[in-house]
Write a structure and sequence with these properties.
Order of helices and strands: EEHEHEHEHEHEHEHEHHHHHHHH
Radius of gyration: 22 Å
CATH class of the largest domain: Alpha Beta
Number of domains: 2
Structural class: alpha/beta
Oligomer: single chain
Distance between the termini: 49 Å
Number of strands: 9
Strand order of the largest sheet: 1-9-8-7-6-5-2-3-4
Helix content: 40-55%
CATH architecture of the largest domain: 3-Layer(aba) Sandwich
Number of helices: 15
CATH topology of the largest domain: Rossmann fold
CATH superfamily of the largest domain: NAD(P)-binding Rossmann-like Domain
């Protein structure tokens, strides 16, 4: 059973006087920096090139430095860059400026799992990874709730790496809700499986249900509204997160509950399972990581651009656009 840590399990004092550098002041970086400052961490700085995020960090009242200088100044470095650009920036601007005793914190296990970043010995390598988009990390903190997170250790040079990881989770507000201890590999696999396994199935279910019902003569506007544009599924998922996936069923009519549960029992899950296992094997075996590297460096994201273009101009998306143009 995984360990879950809360506020009483974490010592904020371990990091409150440390200089913490945020490398990557995007949605996650900004939210985590603001949360840490509000938690009482005395010296949060930002490492950034001179772009919009640089200006935003200045506006938010943080000292902003070039990445190399921010790393030199810091005791703890938050690597919050996109997975695809992090290895190069790490090699060229971060690694040469690390010192023994530094703590390197990741919000994604991807580059550690697949060896794209290989930290030197003598530093702690930890993970404080919110399970929430950056906007939500900040909004939930301000509400006094906090967003849950994963916490983990890849390298324990000090003998206190887990304690530092928990303290960082507390600083960003995650231990208010709960920080689940996992490995970097766990985080990578679970994150990629959601993206490559679960959501593709869900997308296909909605698109195929749309096609079928329109073919049967039902108005496309009504089909889309009934499926999700009313936001009913969003409310269902919120309730599922609060009380349980199936325990939210009593919010529906008996007719609805009977139909959902009998349908659930009748689905042939063998193809779903086969697809998910294929995705899992591609992730664990490094096939996806190699394919993604090739897409970035050899194909210049041409496949991704084509897939997005097809999705954004699909009949499904065009039907959405037609309906949204008519709604108030």
């Amino acid at each position: 059973m995984a360990k879950i840590y809360y506020d009483d399990d974490a010592d904020l004092g371990l990091v409150i006087d440390k200089t913490i550098a945020i490398i990557g002041y995007g949605n996650q970086g900004r939210s985590q920096a603001l949360n840490m400052r509000d938690s009482g961490v005395k010296n949060v700085i930002v490492g950034s090139r001179h772009d919009e995020s640089y200006e935003q960090a200045n506006e938010d009242g943080f000292m902003v430095y070039p990445i190399e200088k921010a790393v030199k100044e810091a005791d703890i470095i938050f690597l919050l860059l996109p997975d695809e650009v992090a290895p190069e920036i790490y090699r060229e601007q971060i690694e040469p400026n690390l010192e023994e005793g530094n703590i390197l914190n990741f919000a994604s296990g991807y580059n550690i799992t697949f060896g794209r970043i290989q930290p030197r010995k003598g530093i702690d390598v930890v993970m404080a990874a919110p399970r929430m988009i950056g906007k939500g990390v900040r909004e939930l903190y301000v509400k006094g709730e906090g967003s849950p997170a994963f916490v983990g250790v890849h390298q324990d040079a000090s003998g206190m790496a887990l304690a530092y990881g928990k303290a960082l989770c507390k600083a960003i507000g995650a231990t208010r809700k709960g920080a689940i201890e996992v490995s970097f590999d766990d985080e990578t696999c679970l994150d990629l499986m959601a993206e490559q396994g679960t959501w593709p199935i869900i997308y296909n279910v909605f698109v195929e249900a749309f096609k079928l019902q329109v073919e049967m003569g039902h108005p496309e506007e009504a089909v889309l509204m009934e499926m999700y544009l009313s936001k009913e599924p969003a409310v269902m998922m919120e309730k599922a997160a609060e009380i349980g996936f199936f325990r939210q069923l009593p919010y529906h009519s008996n007719t609805s509950q009977y139909g959902q549960l009998t349908g659930f029992e009748d689905v042939d899950t063998s193809q779903i399972r086969s697809f998910l296992k294929n995705r899992y094997d591609r992730i664990r075996g490094g096939v996806f990581a190699e394919e993604w590297d090739k897409e970035q460096h050899e194909k210049n994201l041409s496949t991704l651009k084509k897939l997005k273009e097809d999705a954004f101009h699909s009949e499904f998306t065009q039907a959405e656009d037609r309906l949204k143009a008519r709604l108030k």
